[in-house]
C-alpha cells in the first residue's frame, strides 16, 4: 500500500522511520499518534506537546534549519509544508534525506487526509482513524449550530507592515465555517499587505487580530478599535491556523465564537 502526499509523491509505510518534522502542528499530531519515539528532530517552534517534544533535538526554525545537524540525525523522513518551509531548504535536505513528505492542508476537513497520511506512512493507522472519528464528531457539532449572520472580517497576522490573509488559506476557510468571509485586498498574494483606508474600513464588519505570528494583544485591539470605529477582537492564532491535532480544539474554539454574543 502507498500513501500520496500533497505533491503526488507516493510513500511506502515504514515502521522504523526516523522522522524530522519542520511543521509545528504536524509535530504535535505525530506525537498524538504515538510517534514521538521516532521523531529525531523538530524546529524550535514545535512546542506541543511540551512534555514529549522536550527530548527531541531542535534543528533550527521552520525556515532557517541547521542542515548539518539534520544530516547527523540521519533521518529517513522529512515532513514539510508548502506554506511554512522554503523550497530551497527542502531541496537541500532532499539531497541526503531519502523521503520528503510534503503537506498542504487548505481547509478544516483536509485534516482527515493529513492524519491518514501520517498514520499510513508511519504505521499508526489505527490511532489515525480514532483521531479522525474525534474530528468528525467535532465537525458535526460545529455544523449543527444555527447559521449566524454573514460578516466580512479582516484577519490580521502582522503589522509594520500590516498583513492579512486571502480567501485561499486555511484560516479563511476556518472562518467560512461560521459564515465569515475575508475582504479581497489589492495585493494578490495569499498573505497580502494592506494599508488602512476609509474605503477598506467601509467594506468590513470588523477585525480579528491573531496572537501569531505577530504577538497582537488586547492593547493592540483596543487601540485599533478606537482608530477605525469597528469591532476588533483578539483571537488565538493556534486555534485558527494550526491544523493536525490542534484542529480539534480549533473547531471547538470556532463553535464558541459562533455561540457567543454577536461579535460583528
In short:
With 264 residues, the chain is an alpha/beta fold. It contains eleven helices and eleven strands. Helix content is 38%, strand content 15%.
How would you describe what is shown here?
InterPro entries: ABC_Transporter_SBP, ABC_transptr_periplasmic_BD, Vit_B12_bind_prot. Keywords: Signal. It comes from Massilia mucilaginosa. This is ABC transporter substrate-binding protein. Residues 18-264 form the Fe/B12 periplasmic-binding domain. It is a single chain. The chain is of the alpha/beta class. It folds into two domains: 3-140, Nitrogenase molybdenum iron protein domain (Rossmann fold); 151-259, 3-Layer(aba) Sandwich (Rossmann fold). Helices cover 38% and strands 15% of the residues. It has eleven helices and eleven strands. The strands form three sheets. The protein has a five-stranded parallel beta sheet, with helices on one face. Strand 6, helix 4 (87-93) and strand 7 form a beta-alpha-beta unit. Helix 5 (110-121) packs antiparallel against helix 6 (125-143) and helix 6 packs parallel to helix 11. The radius of gyration is 19 Å and the shape is globular. 35% of the residues are buried. The model has no long low-confidence stretch (mean pLDDT 96).
Amino acid at each position: 500500500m502507498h500513501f500520496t502526499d500533497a505533491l503526488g509523491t507516493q510513500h511506502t509505510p515504514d515502521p522504523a522511520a526516523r522522522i524530522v518534522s519542520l511543521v509545528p502542528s504536524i509535530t504535535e499530531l505525530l506525537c498524538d499518534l504515538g510517534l514521538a519515539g521516532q521523531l529525531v528532530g523538530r524546529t524550535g517552534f514545535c512546542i506541543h506537546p511540551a512534555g514529549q517534544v522536550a527530548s527531541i533535538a531542535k534543528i533550527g526554525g521552520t525556515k532557517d534549519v541547521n542542515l548539518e545537524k539534520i544530516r547527523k540525525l540521519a533521518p529517513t523522513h522529512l515532513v514539510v509544508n508548502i506554506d511554512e518551509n522554503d523550497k530551497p531548504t527542502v531541496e537541500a535536505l532532499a539531497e541526503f534525506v531519502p523521503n520528503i513528505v510534503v503537506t498542504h492542508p487548505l481547509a478544516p476537513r483536509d485534516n482527515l487526509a493529513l492524519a491518514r497520511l501520517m498514520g499510513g506512512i508511519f504505521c499508526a493507522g489505527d490511532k489515525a482513524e480514532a483521531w479522525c472519528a474525534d474530528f468528525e464528531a467535532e465537525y458535526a457539532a460545529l455544523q449543527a449550530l444555527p447559521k449566524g449572520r454573514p460578516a466580512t472580517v479582516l484577519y490580521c497576522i502582522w503589522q509594520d507592515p500590516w498583513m492579512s490573509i486571502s480567501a485561499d488559506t486555511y484560516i479563511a476557510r476556518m472562518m467560512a465555517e461560521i459564515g465569515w468571509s475575508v475582504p479581497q485586498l489589492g495585493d494578490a498574494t495569499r498573505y497580502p499587505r494592506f494599508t488602512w483606508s476609509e474605503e477598506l474600513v467601509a467594506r468590513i464588519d470588523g477585525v480579528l487580530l491573531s496572537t501569531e505570528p505577530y504577538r497582537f494583544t488586547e492593547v493592540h485591539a483596543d487601540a485599533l478599535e478606537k482608530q477605525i470605529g469597528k469591532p476588533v477582537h483578539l483571537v488565538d492564532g493556534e486555534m485558527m491556523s494550526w491544523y493536525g491535532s490542534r484542529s480539534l480544539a480549533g473547531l471547538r474554539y470556532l463553535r464558541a465564537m459562533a455561540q457567543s454574543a454577536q461579535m460583528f
